[in-house]
Model the fold of this input.
Amino acid sequence: MSTTKRLSWRVAALASATALAASGCGSGGGSEDSPDDPITIGVSLPLTGDFSEPGKGVERGYKAWAKIVNDKGGLLGRKVELKILDDQSSADRVVSDYEQLIGRDQVDLVFGPFSTRLVVPAARVAEEYGLLFVEPAGAAPEVFDQGFKNLFYAAPAVANDHYNHLADHILALPAAERPKTVAYAAMDDPFAQGTAYGLKDKLEKGGIRTVVDEVYPPNTTDFGSIAAKIASSKADMVVGGSQYQDGVNLIVALQQLNYQPKMAAFSTAPTEPEFAKAIGNKTEGVLAPTGYTQQADYPSNKEFVKEYTEQFGKAPEEDEANAYTTGQVVAAAVEAAECASQDEECQQKLVDWLRENEVETVVGPLKWDDKGRPQSAHMIQQWIDGEIRIVLPEEQKEADLVHPKPKW
Done:
């Protein structure tokens, strides 16, 4: 949609909302909402397509947040109501979804989608409408290079910093134990590449040589040739810049070639609950960055784990936690600003409050720089004895890091 058409739609939508509010019939974006009107929150998520697996996790996290908030009486004494659309993992679709949610449906607030590829175009729509945009899964550097003034990432660290603790650990190993060569394979996706190449940059600066560097399209299903390059390189370590299914498919292909690295790290995939079964329960030693652990001793996390497990019959994972964190961040701003509407003054109050304050969440206390980047770091998890455990940093570890990696 062109900027002219978008602005025309916005003017028409705001005029319509003003007319409805004046007649006493407004709901959604107007300032005349009664205490009985819900606070409507618009979301577009990839419930089908390439990102559907984590997208559904984000959906569950949002729903868990809404239920817990409503069970406590809502926000500002009003119930919250989610309006969720399926963007089908399409950047074009996510734009039209947020145009609909904001311009036609007149939601009061918006939450972000999953994946950097969808966050950037969605954030651009929210920015044009002047709305606060808190998102759970857009961590790539390009998200924060767009000049967005209303965006905040609801997780501990951006993609390039996800592996900082692992890089520090590897470079501190005695020379005889340190991997000397690394093979990288990353999806052509800003987040996936950001995680892999953030680690790559740090290891190369530490003198560890790259022997394979492959980038593959998001819809890749056959990893035979990439796996063959990695296996033939005999790299000491393999790093996958992956989402879910691609990470699983690459690992299975490497297993079939009996490639046995001394270290293996994959973003996102190992933290998904279906991962172990998908790779034949050969998970031992696989590493992954994570911004969340169910065992975190934060008061709101204990409540989240308990309530989420009761609602969905299983404990939450990282995608669900980041979505829940998004809700916590927005709720803190709403309660502090004492407003929830598309009104320009209200939205600016929400943004300004978050710029200046720290928010307690299930992933720990969060604060942001002027570009919306969180100022913390991810933990490193590893599959040990059939369970995924925190191994780095030292002060948060649940088990010692296993090295070299057992055979899969």
Observations:
- Confidence is low (pLDDT under 50) at residues 1-31.
